[in-house]
Amino acid sequence: MGAYVVVVFIRPVPAGHTFPRSNWPLHITLARFDSKEPPDSLGERIGRAFAGLLQFDVRTGADDFFGRNHSVPVSLVEPHPQLQLLHDRLLDALGSDVHLLSPHHARKNFRPHISQQAEGRLHPGHVVHVQQAALVDMRPDGDAKHRRVLAVWN
């Protein structure tokens, strides 16, 4: 079973880009899931669902902490109907054949945020232009220490 995440990168990233799990580019996570379906098939469905939904601006809000121990610093993203629609359309496209890792953070409980990374962080009030979404393999070639961008939609 493959482990995937669909994200909005703050700065566009090309398909094929591989990076260490400890060095994620800044991003907004739309959904993390496992699937038995081949990534190409997933990508086709996701691409159709995202058609016409990209190209809008969101604004970062207050800082917060996520994770089991509230130890992961994040910048919240202010609610935006287009970002919520992107999340909802993604879940609709994935359907019930995937295993969502955080179903309690889906749909009406979606809390968009940008985890602060080694690359840096965004401060409250920063405007992010949502121009690309990407499918990322969480274990490319069975390697859990790296991530690979499998597909992008602009």
What does this structure look like?
The relative contact order is 0.32. 17% of the residues lie in helices and 38% in strands. The protein has a six-stranded antiparallel sheet with strand order 2-10-9-1-3-6. With 154 residues, the chain is an alpha+beta fold. It starts with a strand and ends with a strand. The protein has helices at residues 39-50, 81-94; strands at 2-9, 18-20, 27-35, 56-66, 72-77, 99-100, 113-115, 127-130, 133-137, 146-153. The protein has two helices and ten strands. The chain is globular, with a radius of gyration of 14 Å.
Please state roughly what percent of the residues sit in beta strands, choosing from under 5%, 5-15%, 15-25%, 25-35%, 35-45% or over 45%: 35-45%
N-to-C series of helices and strands: EEEHEEHEEEEE
- Extract low-pLDDT stretches: none
End-to-end distance? 27 Å
Radius of gyration: 14 Å
The portion of residues assigned to helices is 10-25%
Quaternary structure annotation: single chain
**So how many helices?**
2
Structural class: alpha+beta
Indicate the mean pLDDT. Answer: 95
Q: Would you report the number of β strands?
A: 10
Q: Per the principal axes of the C-alpha atoms, what is the gross shape? A: globular
Largest sheet: 6 strands, antiparallel
Strand order of the largest sheet: 2-10-9-1-3-6
SSE order and pairing:
Blueprint: E1 2-9, E2 18-20, E3 27-35, H1 39-50, E4 56-66, E5 72-77, H2 81-94, E6 99-100, E7 113-115, E8 127-130, E9 133-137, E10 146-153
Antiparallel strand pairs: 1-3, 1-9, 2-10, 3-6, 4-5, 4-8, 5-7, 9-10
